[in-house]
Design goal:
Number of domains: 2
Number of strands: 4
Radius of gyration: 21 Å
Shape: globular
CATH superfamily of the largest domain: Cytochrome c-like domain
């Protein structure tokens, strides 16, 4: 996975709430370079067929959205990348954002649950940041309403990076190389909690999935995926009912569901108490790059995609909070295997993400 190649200017309409960066290429070695090949999103199939209509719901977007109050710039994204990979943003100078959101593991950490300050094992899995630009709410329990809000949370959390904001500011101001970078991007504010969050969030929004075999298939290349995967796509949208929660090009409804996992973590109910259906409910993850991101679920308790399908086929624990969408599926072994084959077509070609040269 590589931050998406971008070559465009912001297009901000007065009536809209976001600024937009056009996606021109799918791969690049740095934020300033353009992608090698243009994105093509037009379907080639007959739009009157049911299959073609299913495919149309999953077409890649042509733009990456950025908030009006935090528009994209190459310099801001570059600063954000340095901050994202800088271990000095932790109390012990050991952890960075990239420690838990590593490009080597689909922008997660490959562990069942995260590891924080003092090598403390955390209670939940580190979620991927892939395609976070398109998210509406963040964290497994939805406690962050924006990427900017999310960015500072792990830094100041005592169980994660354990660096209070006042100490973070003092630390960054003591690094000579950061001062001119902040001054160039945020001349009126310099180094401040808000500017740190905006820079990191801007970089995170550039981490977008590249074109996958599935994308080529919905554009009309019938040889891009196997017959098993094509059958899996139909099952995904029909008998298996995966689409009830995993919808759209990023395969998520950005909502919260109790999927019947055995757990003592009540999830979203900690944030919005008193709502039965929010007990044991966690945010629906997107499925792009999914086979690179195991183990699965909010607690990393499910080791493989096949095991994920086995869980959904059984229907999970029947309890009052369980989502109405979660029911036994009666899938055959072949149908379950076809669904796994389909999900594997959502992986894109990965290009190495270079480590930034950090300010001294």
């Amino acid at each position: 996975m590589q931050p998406m190649g971008i070559r465009a200017a912001c297009v901000a309409a007065a009536a809209t709430s976001v600024a937009i960066i056009a996606i021109v290429g799918a791969t690049s070695s740095n934020l300033a370079s353009a992608g090698e090949s243009p994105m093509r999103v037009a379907l080639q199939s007959d739009q009157s067929t049911p299959l073609a209509k299913m495919k149309a719901d999953y077409r890649r977007p042509a733009t990456i959205p950025f908030p009006k109050d935090n528009p994209y710039s190459v310099e801001k994204a570059s600063l954000g990348k340095k901050l994202f990979f800088d271990t000095r943003l932790s109390a012990a100078n050991i952890l960075s954002c990239g420690s838990c959101h590593s490009p080597a593991y689909g922008w997660g950490d490959g562990q069942p649950t995260g590891v924080g300050h003092g090598m403390k094992k955390l209670g939940r899995r580190s979620p991927t940041i892939v395609n976070a630009a398109f998210g509406q709410i963040f964290m497994w329990d939805g406690r962050a309403g924006s990427l900017e809000e999310q960015a500072l949370g792990p830094i100041r959390a005592d169980v994660e990076m354990n660096l209070p904001v006042d100490q973070l500011i003092e630390k960054l101001k003591g690094i000579d190389g950061y001062r001119p970078l902040f001054q160039a991007v945020f001349p009126a504010q310099g180094i401040a909690p808000e500017t740190i969050a905006k820079a990191i969030a801007t970089y995170e929004r550039t981490v977008v999935s590249n074109r996958a075999p599935f994308d080529a298939w919905i554009e009309g290349d019938e040889t891009a995926i196997s017959q098993e995967a094509a059958r899996g796509f139909v099952l995904f949208n029909t008998k298996a009912r995966c689409v009830d929660c995993h919808s759209g090009w990023n395969f998520t409804d950005d909502s919260f569901h109790d999927i019947g996992l055995a757990s003592t973590d009540i999830g979203r109910a900690k944030i919005v108490p008193g709502i039965e259906k929010m007990k044991f409910a966690f945010k629906t993850p997107g499925l792009r790059e999914i086979s690179l991101r195991g183990p699965y679920m909010h607690d990393g308790s499910v080791p493989t995609l096949q095991a994920v399908m086995d869980h959904y086929n059984r229907g999970g624990i029947d309890r009052p909070s369980r989502s109405a969408q979660i029911k036994p599926l009666s899938l055959s072994k072949q149908e379950s295997a076809d669904l796994v084959a389909f999900m594997k077509t959502l992986n894109s070609d990965l290009a190495p993400t270079s480590a930034p040269l950090l300010p001294r």
